[in-house]
Amino acid sequence: MSSNTPRIAIVGVAGRMGRTLVAAVEQDAQARLAAGIVAPGSSLKEADVGELAGLGKLGIQAVDSLTSVVDEFDVLIDFTTPRVTLDNLAFCAEHGKRMVIGTTGLGDDELIELDGHCDRVPLVFAPNMSVGVNLTLKLLKTAAQALGDEGYDIEVIEAHHRHKVDAPSGTALKMGEVVADSLNRNLKEHGVFERVGQCGPRSDKEIGFATVRAGDIVGEHTVLFATEGERIEITHKASSRMTFAKGAVRAARWVSEQPAGRYDMQDVLGLT
């Protein structure tokens, strides 16, 4: 393998994000699509990965297990579900592979399990691979440090398509964490994820979250800083999954040259 041309395998190539990832790898001259994986027992096993993505034949047949392509890829990209992702991470740790994870909705125990493999796997794990979102996180840190303890209320509002299964989104939670960390607050203590009935006035330090699920919204996130007389809104809107896919491929290229450890997109983009 050329050090700057990793062979990439993609999990979930029959899904919307998987198909977009296939297209993103094909558009990147510094990466090579090596394998596509579908769910075990899927009727799409042996289908051409390019045809699944609407690109025409690429000569790569979908498989339903990593074992069958273990010698064919260097970096695995996974945007599936927590349990599938963690099983795939264990596989990569055992076989000396690298990994890019965009899966969201991992709980505390699952994050501990993920970290347990990071001494053996070079891993980029981020709730959002978009370059724009990760620049937004940097802006939020600056805004929170300047505004947050000067009487500004903070709210995180996010919207996604009707099929998304976790809420708030991983990106919204990351935005809340960035703001909370910048203000020396614990998001678990100060995050408010539900307001129903006679909930009373907000506290000074709470960080509120609001979630919208509707139609085909790809992803919209706004962090609102509001005080008497003014409000500041920092917003990112995605109109195509290709934004996330291109970021994931960029992360795959970057992590192909890193030692074992857990990284995020801030590391990939040099924003740390």
Q: Tell me the fraction of residues in β-strands, as a range.
A: 15-25%
Determine the mean pLDDT.
Answer: 94
Count every helix, treating DSSP H or I runs of 4 or more residues as helices. Answer: 9
Tell me the number of structural domains: 2
Secondary structural class:
alpha/beta
Name the CATH homologous superfamily of the largest domain. NAD(P)-binding Rossmann-like Domain
The low-confidence parts are: none
CA-CA gap between termini:
29 Å
CATH architecture of the largest domain: 3-Layer(aba) Sandwich
Highest CATH level, the class of the largest domain? Alpha Beta
Keywords:
single chain, 272 residues, alpha/beta, Rossmann fold, Dihydrodipicolinate Reductase, domain 2, 2 domains, six-stranded parallel sheet, five-stranded mixed sheet, 9 helices, 33% helix, elongated
